[in-house]
Design a protein that fits this description.
The protein has about 800 residues and is an alpha/beta fold.
């Protein structure tokens, strides 16, 4: 039999654990070829695996005794390599017991042996085995494996820690303490080790030592929340609730928002023990507030402020609770009360000026609050003081806590109000950060290089869908793109949205995730020496609104990601849609209006899910004519409530499907009361015609669109992305364009696809079209067919990309002329 074939047969016998046959074959092979050393290596291995180490060593030693010093050195190397190969093979086959036996045998051959890579691989494999045993709840076997690891590497601190955990589970606390102290000796900077020591000592009722261990853990890692919780818990066990409160409060300083709810509840529980009901109310209020359960938080905060009048933070949170639950009068009353207690606080003055209802009862209420907002803004501008550092900081803080977003839902032209506001914020920012508000000129080398364009946003993960293609399909020979994502620490950004956000990194020349304040963000932007800076959706968050009054690039633009003028003296252009803007559109903007081709944005066709749900899955009647009313409830103003019952009067099969407000059930309920009133005026019960669905995951929402019959657009602020989805699904859309662009988005989209027969000029015609679509099945199907045929025109438009790039070049040329 050839030698190679013999080796293969030997390996097979060893793999099959047929050791006696392997030994017999090896002895026979040695008789025929006593000079082949590999036979001896295998023969010793066969005995070694049978745990007959003495015989294995005897066989290998017999070979070494036959050679001179140089030969013995070479044979030692060969045998070591042979055994290493077998260790690797046994690890790969999961025979970790064999691998360990062979590994330990190497040291009897070569006491100075070192192979960290192989040692680590064996330890890792054994660690994986131990974890599997733990998952099978076989902790004693896991302990045995960890002990084997420590024989291989006595300094393996992770195994010592794991060993301590398993001894602890088996209530072998002395062994657990011994193991974790050995781990600490190896690594006395591990907060996790000290925390585990504290847990073990606590179970051994050595409380003072346990406390010291937890304190050491926190000192090593001030953000280790488990150690705070354990330390507070041991104080509670010792009836020292006051000390537990101190620890919980300290943990709040380092806890992410998602963890603070439970900490607030624990603090409240501790105050229960201390019989301090006022502070119990405070921290129950904090817990509800941070959970966005303002209706629950209100009575807790009210109880606190009725007993303590020196805590401004609680006043501000209670005011916010009143605002988001649409109790505007209560909010204003509390602001006035707090202003008397804190007369110099500018944030309260700004809050008083800006407070608005979320849902309006009637048109008169809109008018009242609009006039109040504008008048108090003018007074605030007159009263502002920026002489001291404290006054400047107060003014800056007052604009960091909110926006004017609710003003935008009133359906009116806000130009003059926003110009006043933009001028006001600019005065403050220019006084505090003058170096970031100075005029900038273009670098003279611009004709020899690409134009450098930056985008700054807190909303890349969702509104970025509008303008990603500006970046993706740009002319890379002419433009460099820089992205500034300031949502880096926003816990509301979901993981699936984070994936979309990564597209901006792929298609740009540079992307930064910035969590700094406005000064830090400004530095990052100015370091890139941009030519043009774009704020795609100004007005949605306070941070970009402050940045927009500064001068961070020679040319600054905003766009219709949020279709409102900025009012900023330092935003030069508003990039809008030619199809959506009315003839007198410039009257609505403080910026120079740029009417880009078509929608201005190039939108991708949405991926529609397979329709695997029925109407009943959404509590919708199968036989009804479904009118989808999926806009934010804030867009529905009271003067248009009559539209729904007017349609219902002519179509008894109508079912209007609304989506609950993301701001909470109080807002939805306020809207329901208004709609109920409108239906009662024509002797109809709104519950017979209207259903409200909770906010849906995107695929469920798109299935709802496909299951609907008609899309009823809102008046004062029409659909944007929702209209895009309706067109993708071929859903007939009823719309009536308003005075301003934000009330004409659906109009522009229908113009683009050439389906204009469902565009109304008046409210009466809107109702007529809605009724006809519901009753005339053939016409409805004809409109649907036309939309399905033409909908491709809306998506992946390249003309607007050419248009925006032409604008960039023209804006640069004009700026150079003025330089």
């Amino acid at each position: 039999m050839p030698k190679q074939q013999t080796f293969e047969e030997i390996k097979l016998l060893l793999d099959q654990e047929s050791y006696e046959n392997a030994i017999a074959l090896l002895e026979k092979s040695i008789e025929k070829n006593p000079e082949e050393l590999t036979y001896y290596w295998y023969l010793g291995l066969a005995y070694l695996i049978q745990e007959n180490e003495e015989e294995a060593q005897s066989i290998w030693l017999s070979i070494f005794l036959q050679g001179n010093l140089e030969e013995v050195k070479q044979w030692t190397i060969e045998l070591t390599e042979f055994l290493e190969t077998n260790i690797e093979e046994n690890i790969a086959e999961g025979k970790l017991g064999n691998a360990k036996i062979i590994y330990e045998a190497i040291f009897t051959i070569n006491p100075d042996y070192e192979n960290f890579k192989l040692s680590n691989r064996l330890v890792e494999s054994l660690s994986d085995l131990a974890l599997c045993l733990i998952n099978e709840n076989n902790r004693q076997s896991a302990i045995n494996v960890y002990l084997e690891i420590l024989r291989i590497n006595p300094d393996h601190a992770i195994s010592l820690h794991s060993l301590a955990i398993n001894y602890d589970h088996l209530e072998q606390y002395n062994e657990a303490e011994s193991s974790i102290r050995k781990a600490i000796k190896l690594n006395d900077l591990s907060a996790v080790n000290y925390q585990l020591l504290g847990l073990i000592l606590e179970k051994k009722e050595q409380y003072s030592s346990a406390i010291k261990a937890y304190q050491k853990s926190i000192k090593l890692d001030p953000k280790f929340l488990d150690a705070y919780a354990d330390l507070a818990n041991i104080y509670l066990q010792q009836n020292q609730a006051d000390k537990a409160v101190e620890i919980y409060k300290a943990s709040l300083d380092v806890a992410p928002i998602g963890f603070r709810v439970s900490i607030f509840e624990k603090i409240a529980d501790a105050y229960e023990r201390l019989n301090n009901q006022i502070l119990v109310a405070l921290y129950r209020g904090y817990s509800a507030y941070i959970s966005k359960k303002c209706q629950i938080a209100i009575p807790y905060f009210e109880r606190f402020v009725n007993n303590h009048t020196d805590n401004l933070d609680v006043y501000l949170k209670l005011i916010d609770c009143y605002i988001v639950t649409n109790q505007t009068s209560l909010a204003i009353n509390l602001i006035e009360k707090a202003s008397k207690l804190f007369p110099d606080n500018f944030s309260l003055k700004r809050l008083n000026q800006s407070v608005l209802p979320i849902i309006y009862k009637d048109v008169e209420e809109i008018k009242f609050y609009r006039e109040r907002f504008s008048q108090l803004l003018k007074e605030l501008i007159k009263e502002i003081k920026l002489d001291t550092i404290q006054e400047q900081q107060d003014a800056l803080y007052s604009f960091q806590t909110g926006t004017n977003l609710y003003l935008d839902y009133q359906g009116e032209n806000n130009l003059e109000i926003y110009k006043d506001y933009g001028h006001f914020v600019h005065i403050i920012m220019n006084r505090i950060f003058p170096e970031y508000c100075k005029p900038l000129t273009l670098n003279q080398d611009i004709s020899q290089r690409k134009i450098r364009i930056g985008y700054i946003s807190l909303h890349l993960h969702n509104l970025g869908i509008l303008y990603l293609n500006w970046i993706k399909f740009r002319d890379q020979s002419k433009f460099e793109i820089y992205i500034y994502d300031i949502s880096a620490n926003d816990e509301n950004v979901k993981n699936d949205h984070l994936h979309f956000r990564e597209n901006f990194k792929i298609y740009s020349n540079g992307m930064q995730f910035i969590s700094d304040d406005v000064v830090g963000i400004s530095r990052h932007i100015m370091d890139d020496k941009l030519d043009i800076l774009i704020f795609p959706e100004l007005g949605l968050d306070p941070k970009t609104s402050q940045l927009a009054v500064m001068r961070l690039a020679p040319i600054q633009c905003t766009a219709w990601g949020h279709p409102m003028t900025s009012g900023s003296p330092n935003i030069d252009y508003f990039l809008s849609s030619d199809l959506m803007e009315p003839d007198n559109a410039q009257e609505h903007y403080s910026e120079k209006l740029v009417r880009l081709p078509n929608l201005a944005f190039s939108i991708d066709y949405p991926i529609l899910p397979r329709l695997n749900k029925k109407r009943l899955d959404f509590q919708i009647k199968e036989i009804s004519i479904v009118y989808l009313c999926c806009q934010s409830i804030l867009k529905y103003l009271p003067q248009y409530d009559y539209i729904f019952p007017s349609i219902a009067q002519h179509n008894k099969s109508a079912q209007f499907v609304f989506i609950d407000s993301r701001l909470g059930p109080v807002i939805t309920d306020s809207f329901k009361k208004r709609i109920d009133k409108a239906f009662k005026q024509v002797n109809l019960n709104f519950e017979d015609y209207c259903i409200f669905l909770k906010a849906l995951p995107i695929n469920d929402y798109l299935m709802l669109v496909q299951l609907s019959d008609i899309f009823l657009d809102s008046f004062s602020w029409s659909g944007g992305l929702t209209t895009k989805d309706a067109i993708a699904c071929g859903l007939p859309i009823v719309t009536c364009p308003g005075k301003m662009m934000r009330a004409r988005q659906s109009y522009g989209m229908l113009q683009m696809i050439g389906v204009t027969e469902t565009i109304a000029e008046t409210e009466a015609e809107y109702i007529e079209i809605g009724v006809r679509l519901g009753l005339d099945h053939e016409w409805r199907q004809a409109v649907r067919a036309k939309m399905t045929t033409n909908k491709h025109r809306l998506f992946n438009d390249r003309e607007c990309i050419k248009g925006v790039e032409a604008f960039f070049q023209e804006a640069i040329a004009k700026k150079l002329e003025l330089t």
